[in-house]
């Protein structure tokens, strides 16, 4: 038995030696404790609320290799946010940083960075804790000694960007504009601008200031520009405005100059010395009516004529009175007639007997009878007029430029629209500057929204006398652009082809909708985010979407009652794939997906508190182009439609046609009202268009605020008792109007 035990032990020892020889087994390694290490940190002092890269160095003064290091923040006043270290695996929290799977041999040093943010209050010095172990899991760690203290002292650094406010635009010409703003601290001035919100151009001034002004030059005529503002303070913090727009004016129609009753060709030139002329009375204004303006002119031979202009020399009229005409020295006077509210650059011109001319000094004549009132507006994309929803809300998409056109009285010299997201009090909002047409007198600008939301538009108008007026306009619901998505994870599909098909009424055939006349592309190819943008006019349509590796999608047929944007995301299913090892082959799909396109936009609005429904029709007494006056009291006893429409609005022709036919119906009251237009202008329009319609004239816009007029045309349906029962925006046919009057 002892012999057998001895043989067994011998066999076990031989087996163990063989296993050890081939490293098939190993004895557990015994780790010795680290008994000596030092550490240091820089800096030793930081400001409150500052983020600092702390430089650590740990020295291995032991005989064993360090394989685990842990750094702990000095106090609750610090929060760790990151690290920089090479050759180690790192885990970190806001309290500690732990280094593993590395080696710091005896007599070697390791440098690394721990990023931490200090608290908002000053605090005395406290030590970081640096621990080391030769165990990869940190058994029996040793706290290293050294200079590891850090205090929080001094003032907190400035991390607040400048606030940008009071953005204004001035001196707008066909090729230049001045953009001004203020900041709450000295900061630099930069304007980024371009044809869209990618900008591409910039102009800046590096001098810090509170009041900023940048002049943009070399702009294109009759062009919409986007711009945003950046101001950077001395601490390097940058503040930005929202995306804003302005529209440069056209050059205006050229007007041939006139020279009194005779042309220059009828004057025989005997010398070349021009006369001198001066306006001596400088009007202080503002005036309700134009004052008498006087002046003198001299010439070495004789003065032939004196004229004056109230539009900076585009048109000329003879002076009312000239004393000494034909002599070398004359005096003159004139009183401009029929001037409406506005600023008029006025000058005089003298022509001598040889045909030489000279202009006088210029004076600004300010006529101020009314405040600068803004009227109804029309929003469009190309020729396509965008009508609000049933809730009187305009619906738009992010990144789409839309033109807004409106009329105004009271001689405004500037009109800016501010757009404020009603659900975001922190946003400063966007500014859309309007430009006045020299030919039509209408104001136009570009609406563009970079972020989705519900925006209230406010018109801010200023006239030459300094009178300011604010008026609420439209509410605009801005949706994200619809996207083409694919697969179970709804990934955006880039380069998907989206085609809109239209039912052509005459041929009753489906054709690819021609978007070019409406300023849109069709078909469209989606961008990298899967986005496409389509504003669809009235009609019947369907969508077809194709993309590689996805089944074709065809929507149900949908019909639009008004121009609306499409906002429905389109989800494509992946095609079936045949897998051959590592290769997957997409099989052609004969199936077609069907999807419903949402066109009934049910939107909540902020206009409910201004609703006139179930209220008495606002009181008015207005003259008509047919003679006499009409009072709101005259409307009782019969169902009534009150329609605000102007001759300049694109829908005018279609709407006047329906109203003209309905005015012949003696069982109802049909009351068209035109604001900010004269009776003479409406008569000319009626004669040219052939519509014999009696329109009420509100030249001064007395009804605009009372009826909360925003869009054109707008219809108010009033019952026999004079109570408004419904408000409808957009063009209505004769049949639609009669249908809505039933029961009133």
Automatic annotation (TrEMBL):
Signal peptide bounds: none
Boundaries of every Fibronectin type-III domain copy: 163-251
InterPro entries, alphabetized: AhpC/TSA (IPR000866), Big_13 (IPR044016), CarboxyPept-like_regulatory (IPR008969), FN3_dom (IPR003961), Ig-like_fold (IPR013783), Ig_E-set (IPR014756), PAPs_N (IPR015914), Purple_acid_Pase-like_N (IPR008963)
Residue span(s) of domain Thioredoxin: 611-744
GO molecular function terms listed in the Swiss-Prot or TrEMBL record: acid phosphatase activity; antioxidant activity; metal ion binding; oxidoreductase activity
One of the Pfam families matching this protein, by short name: AhpC-TSA
Xref: CDD domains: FN3 (cd00063), TlpA_like_family (cd02966)
Listed SUPFAM superfamilies: Carboxypeptidase regulatory domain-like, E set domains, Purple acid phosphatase, N-terminal domain, Thioredoxin-like
Protein name in UniProt: Fibronectin type-III domain-containing protein
Organism of provenance: Candidatus Woykebacteria bacterium RBG_13_40_15
């Amino acid at each position: 038995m002892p012999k057998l035990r001895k043989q067994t032990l011998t066999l076990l020892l031989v087996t163990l030696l063989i296993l050890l020889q081939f490293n098939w087994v190993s004895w557990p390694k015994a780790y010795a404790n680290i008994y000596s290490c030092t550490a240091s940190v820089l800096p030793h002092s930081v400001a409150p609320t500052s983020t600092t890269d702390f430089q650590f160095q740990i020295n291995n003064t032991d005989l064993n290799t360090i394989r685990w290091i842990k750094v702990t923040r000095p106090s609750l006043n610090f929060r760790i946010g990151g690290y920089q270290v090479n050759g180690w695996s790192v885990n970190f929290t806001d309290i500690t940083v732990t280094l593993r799977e590395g080696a710091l041999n005896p007599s070697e040093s390791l440098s690394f960075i721990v990023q931490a943010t200090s608290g908002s209050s000053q605090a005395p010095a406290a030590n970081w804790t640096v621990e080391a172990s030769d165990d990869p899991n940190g058994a029996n760690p040793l706290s290293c000694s050294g200079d590891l203290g850090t205090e929080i002292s001094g003032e907190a650094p400035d991390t607040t960007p400048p606030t940008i406010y009071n953005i204004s635009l001035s001196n707008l010409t066909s090729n230049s504009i001045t953009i001004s703003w203020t900041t709450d601290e000295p900061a630099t001035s930069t304007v980024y601008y371009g044809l869209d919100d990618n900008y591409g151009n910039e102009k800046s001034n590096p001098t810090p200031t509170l009041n900023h002004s940048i002049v943009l030059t070399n702009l294109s005529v009759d062009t919409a520009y986007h711009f945003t503002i950046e101001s950077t303070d001395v601490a390097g913090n940058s503040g930005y405005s929202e995306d804003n727009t302005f529209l440069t004016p056209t050059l205006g129609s050229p007007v041939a100059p006139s020279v009194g009753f005779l042309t220059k060709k009828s004057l025989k030139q005997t010398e070349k010395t021009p006369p001198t002329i001066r306006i001596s009375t400088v009007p202080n204004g503002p005036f309700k009516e134009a004052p008498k303006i006087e002046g003198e002119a001299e010439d070495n031979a004789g003065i032939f004529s004196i004229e004056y202009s109230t539009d900076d020399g585009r048109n000329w009229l003879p002076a009312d009175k000239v004393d000494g005409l034909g002599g070398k020295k004359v005096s003159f006077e004139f009183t401009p007639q029929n001037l409406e509210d506005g600023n008029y650059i006025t000058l005089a011109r003298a022509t001598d007997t040889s045909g030489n001319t000279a202009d006088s000094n210029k004076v600004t004549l300010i006529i101020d009878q009314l405040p600068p009132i803004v009227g109804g507006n029309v929003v469009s994309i190309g020729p396509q007029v965008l009508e609000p929803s049933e809730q009187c809300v305009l619906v738009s998409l992010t990144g789409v430029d839309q033109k807004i056109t409106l009329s105004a009285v009271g001689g405004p010299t500037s009109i800016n629209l501010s757009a404020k997201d009603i659900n975001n009090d922190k946003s400063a909002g966007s500014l859309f500057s309007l430009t006045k047409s020299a030919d039509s007198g209408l104001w136009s600008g570009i609406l563009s929204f970079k972020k989705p939301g519900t925006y209230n538009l406010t018109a801010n108008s200023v006239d030459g006398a300094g009178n300011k007026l604010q008026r609420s306009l439209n509410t605009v619901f801005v949706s994200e652009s619809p996207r083409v998505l694919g697969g179970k994870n709804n990934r955006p599909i880039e380069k998907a082809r989206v085609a809109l098909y239209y039912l052509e009424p005459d041929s009753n055939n489906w054709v690819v909708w021609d978007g070019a006349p409406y300023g849109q592309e069709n078909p469209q190819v989606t961008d990298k985010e899967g986005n496409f943008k389509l504003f669809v006019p009235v009609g019947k349509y369907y969508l077809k979407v194709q993309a590689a590796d996805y089944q074709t999608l065809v929507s149900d047929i949908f019909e639009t009652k008004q121009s609306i944007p499409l906002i429905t995301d389109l989800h494509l299913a992946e095609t079936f794939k045949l897998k051959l090892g590592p290769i997957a082959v997409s099989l052609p799909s004969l199936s077609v997906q069907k999807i419903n396109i949402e066109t009934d936009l049910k939107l909540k609005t902020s206009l409910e508190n201004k609703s006139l429904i179930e209220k008495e029709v606002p009181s008015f007494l207005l003259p008509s182009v047919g003679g006499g006056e009409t009072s709101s009291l005259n409307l009782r006893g019969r169902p009534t439609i009150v329609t605000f429409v102007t001759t300049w609005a694109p829908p005018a022709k279609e709407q006047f046609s329906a109203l003209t036919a309905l005015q012949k119906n003696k069982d109802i009251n049909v009351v068209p009202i035109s604001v900010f237009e004269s009776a003479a202008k409406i008569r000319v329009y009626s004669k040219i268009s052939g519509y014999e319609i009696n329109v009420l004239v509100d030249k001064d816009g007395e009804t605009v605020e009372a009826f909360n007029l925003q869009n054109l045309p707008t219809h108010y349906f009033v019952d026999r008792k004079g109570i408004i029962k419904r408000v409808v925006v957009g063009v209505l046919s004769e049949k639609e109007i009669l249908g809505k009057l039933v029961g009133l």
